[in-house]
# Entry
Amino acid sequence: MAHLSRRAILAAPLLLPLAAHAQSPYPSRPVRVIVPFPAGGGTDTWARLAIEGMQPDIGTMLIDNRGGGNGLIGTEAAAKAEPDGHQLLFTITTHVQVPVVMRRFTYDPIKDFTPIGRLSYTALVFVVGPKVPAEITTLQQFVEWSKGKDLSLGNYAAGSHGHAFAMMLAREAKLKAVNVAYRGENPMLQDMIGGTIEGGFHSMAAAGAMVRDGKLRPLAIAGTRERSASLPNVPTMIELGYSDHFGFTGFSGLFAPAKTPQPVIDKLAAAFRTSANKPETKEKLVGMDTVPAYLPPDEFKVQMEKSLKQWTEMVEALDLKMDG
# Structure
């Protein structure tokens, strides 16, 4: 018995580090938040705003921009990350859209991720650049001017709102247009200002400054049924007689890989809720022409499932496809 007690005493110190490791607080290192689009676009802007308000509760959080593959590259990396809460994903509605349009489900947008919270949604503004004559200030004028021309309309990611809306505009207005895919909004905006493409659908978070400076002209609003607060004189696509598809509303939000421990999700969700509901966060979102629209994890999941269903129906109805 004495011999056994001595063995137990000798073994005890070996167990202490393991116990300490198991009980180490979360997070134990900086938390990386993957944004599957380049810096400077709307998604990047919203992500930085969200994590800024989370850091007092979570600690150091770093943005990891992984653009490319229409958002697939960064999203796939997040899906495969260790589910310990140290690598997250901040993304937009392309999360459920791109796999459907590309017919490539390299990740399951519902099952492979746990929602932490929805931050907002935003309308997309159809804007044109200097390649379009300055006297054209309405969508009707643009459509008339475009008849018989070979247009180049940009999209910030194939399979996104911007891509689908551009295709629908061309189809419903009977325009001859090629869609040019970019890795994010910023490269597309630069090409539009440079005269490479005629126009495209953008979030005001990315295009707002250029619109206010007069470098781009807003002609119509999509992704909502209501006019934009900052562009009250710009009509919605639905107002102008285009199809109900243009009222499809998206989201921006934060996710963790599936199987992340519930206590970690709860801590992240509480910090995200605090950040999203701060008056300064809402004020900045409104200033970017983005609608503050926080949802907790369970409600956000329901909205994601609804968005996936609506988008799938829309894609099938319009026969939208994108090779990848």
Remarks:
- Residues 1-22 have pLDDT under 50 and may be disordered.
